[in-house]
Amino acid sequence: MQKKNPNSLPQYTDTEPVPGLNRSGSPALSRSVQAQIGQRLRQFYETLALGEQPVPDRFIEIINRLDEVKREKQQS
Prior knowledge:
Blueprint (H helix, E strand, L loop, with lengths): L30 H19 L7 H19 L1
Organism: Microvirga flocculans
Pfam family, one: NepR
InterPro entries: NepR
């Protein structure tokens, strides 16, 4: 049996549906849960901005992919 890495994020492609969204496009999470997630994300980003933690490699990969797509769109 293969162990899961708790720090690894699931890999999604652009064609897969977004987890947590109903087919109607409305969020499946309550406002309370959304607020808690938002608060934790803000705290995490604040520690990154202050240099208390290094930027995760996954974030750098995502930013690089977005930059690449942006350059490709500008060239066409």
